[in-house]
Amino acid sequence: MTTEVTGTPDETVLEAQFADTIGRKDRIEPRDWMPEKYRKTLVRQVAQHAHSEIIGMQPEGNWISRAPSLRRKAILLAKVQDEAGHGLYLYSAAETLGATRDELTEKLIAGKQKYSSIFNYPTLSYTDVGTIGWLVDGAAICNQVPLCRTSFGPYGRAMIRICKEESFHQRQGYELLMTMMRGTDEQRASVQESVNRFWWPSLMMFGPPDDDSPNTEQSMEWGIKTHTNDELRQKFVDMSVPQAEALGVTFPDDGLKWNEERGHYDFSTPDWDEFWAVVKGNGPCNDQRVNHRKRAWDEGAWVREAALAFAENSAAGATDDAAPTDDTAPTNPATTAEEAAK
Ligand SMILES: [Fe+2]
Ligand SMILES: [Fe+2]
């Protein structure tokens, strides 16, 4: 399509081009024109997602110093570190929409932006690390795999790598629980107790029911979302039941049974009053999570200031001085040691 270059194109032409791109299931990129509401919806969703990754480091980070073995500690450290990385890719994606990380973090701390309500529940035992990996990262995978094809380019591309790492997170959780199920009666009881606590909050991770989710329809029209909350929740239940059977645990729901006609598992309605109470800030750990994030943000202010000052000085230096010669360039000790050994 050729448009005459006679100045700023008409808004209706731009809107038609935008709709056309979405219709072709092609991607909207940061420099493309987009409706202001599309941009705002994405900033809200990507920010909420980024905050969830960062706040989500806390419940499990709580157990790093108390891991039962060096192997478990290494796995948990790697997992929590992955979540930090996910947060950073997502804040970068939000930056391409014009929202800075500082601005988003300040909104999170002020309670103006949300994160997944699951992270407002406490981790009471090391077993919870396994349950979170299996159920919470499992629910995240159901939510996030379709987002790899979301209509905004930087968000979709960030999700591809995130999903690969989430799949490792789920496996390490399931493997931890499987190891415990092969252990003592006490360990098996601990797995069941942990699963009982996390099952319902995991189902709530998909958000409110479709008829109570005002943004879903528009987000689907824009190709931001490709499945509704209820569709994804059903998919998660169908996927988790056989895994629970293989593990030897049950879910705390008497209404959970296979429905031959629907070809899906039926399940009871989550307690949506509890969900809304937690979303509104009244969960068991809301204050603790946000206060911890605020403390880390405040205590890190000097690092951000120093990094900025260093970057400014380096930029000023680069224009004043000649580039460093090879003699002054830092040497890589690993390379030197390797060469010395030859
Ligand atoms: Fe993650
Ligand atoms: Fe994860």
From TrEMBL:
Q: Where is this region: Disordered?
A: 313-342
Source species? Brevibacterium picturae
Q: What is this protein called?
A: 1,2-phenylacetyl-CoA epoxidase subunit A
Q: Which InterPro entries match?
A: Aromatic_CoA_ox/epox (IPR052703), Ferritin-like (IPR012347), Ferritin-like_SF (IPR009078), PaaA (IPR011881), PaaA_PaaC (IPR007814)
